């Protein structure tokens, strides 16, 4: 009887060892192979505070695209400044929104930026139109604007001209003290976005879009599928969408996220719109009033 019991114990031990070896030999799939690696949409908290981007600086209070506006934006707590940039006739990158100087340097000689030299542009006063206290503000260069960006902050560089600016832009960005993740390029021109991604892949480059409503059907263009296709074709890092709440919804956000792209909105001065965009999970909100929009978003968390 004792001998039979010992034999039974030995048999059980052998079976357990054999099964253990079989189990150990099996390959257990990693989370990556199971497709469990988190996507952009999975890692973005819907309630996370979006970056506050100062549109042309703190342009509600100071003259747009001037050093005064950018410095004020930092004082008002912006995470990012956004500026518009053209290439002058003598290959200087200058900060201005319009193709000409007429609107922001009135009652002075008017120049088309691409046809003017830097010295000609620099003679103009770009501050007095906003307020006498800003009289004497000059058109800044890209290098001067980059130099205002503190550690841990960012700049959105909006390219307002064509691909001709890219070689000069590449050199000047490389010469700055900013890290690649502090610089984001943005543009409406799909050729510029595509070439920027090809030649300056170290920087994020976002494609910008606004919307048109068809007069007969009242449908908006571009549609979400068209936006997705453009992001694919340009290899854009993200979408910068106008704050048209007839076009923006969860489906758009999800479609952009599924591509692995970021999603950003401009130009948002309405606190209610800003709160909605935050709930939708937008990465950044561009505004003329960075202090007010931040205060509105902070109040929604209290």
UniProtKB/TrEMBL annotation:
UniProt signal peptide: 1-32
Entry keywords, A to Z: Hydrolase, Signal
EC numbers for this chain: 3.1.4.46
ATP-binding is among the record's keywords: no
Single GO BP term: lipid metabolic process
Taxonomic superkingdom: Bacteria
Location of the GP-PDE domain: 50-297
InterPro entries: GP_PDE_dom, PLC-like_Pdiesterase_TIM-brl
Gene Ontology molecular function: glycerophosphodiester phosphodiesterase activity
Protein name: Glycerophosphoryl diester phosphodiesterase 1
Annotated source species: Allorhodopirellula heiligendammensis
Lineage: Bacteria, Pseudomonadati, Planctomycetota, Planctomycetia, Pirellulales
Gene: glpQ1_2
